[in-house]
Amino acid sequence: PLFQAMESEISAAFDSGEPEDILSRAFKLTVTREDICTLQPLGWLNDRIMNFYMGLLVERSKKEGYPAVYAFNTFFYSKLCSTSHKGVKKWTKGVDIFEHDVILVPIHLRVHWTLLVVDLREKTIKYFDSLGQKGDHICKTILKYLEEESKEKRNIELTASEWTLHSMGTEEIPQQNNGSDCGVFVCKFADFISRDKPIIFTPEHMPYFRRKMVWEIIHQQLL
């Protein structure tokens, strides 16, 4: 019965009411029915859904037994690229990102979502792309950002040679089998990584993940 109740709630989120109805509010974000509808099969996830989900992951990471997670906004990387460290310096005002275990950087490349993950415990920067493209230059851009952020905020020089940069290969992570699931892949890569779990899902899980995310966003709670 619980599962049926959840299912009917998810269907109602898609089908009843107006596009501008607000279905969830948290993390200084509002999610409308129109936003939620991007989670329908083959929908393209928008910035609001991505940022809201990252907010849920950060919230969960405050609980006992989870790595401490910091997530950048989806607009961070493009802003960094266009303005260098100076332009994003204020984004971390009052926050020491180096006090966290894992930093998530969701990246929007015009028509494709990818994820960059900094593991401060291991000193690794990894790039996750469900279309298998390499992001070595993106890893380098973020390492340079970390060096400047560390110098500016903590007066500590990072030693670049101690860091490992790696674009995940197609044999290391699951790959999407359509042109629209990249956003869901990014959210689920981030979900598994932020629990220190191996990434074991497949493209077949995507329809289920989409529906589950609708419920999680509406209830502001990860299942």
TrEMBL record:
It holds the Pfam family Peptidase_C48. Keywords: Hydrolase, Protease, Thiol protease. One of its GO terms (cellular component) is nucleus. Residues 29-193 form the Ubiquitin-like protease family profile domain. One of its GO terms (molecular function) is deSUMOylase activity. InterPro entries: Papain-like_cys_pep_sf (IPR038765), Peptidase_C48_C (IPR003653). It comes from the Eukaryota. GO terms for biological process: protein desumoylation; proteolysis; regulation of macromolecule metabolic process; regulation of primary metabolic process. PROSITE patterns: ULP_PROTEASE. Belongs to the peptidase C48 family. This is SENP2 protease. It comes from Dryoscopus gambensis. The gene is Senp2.
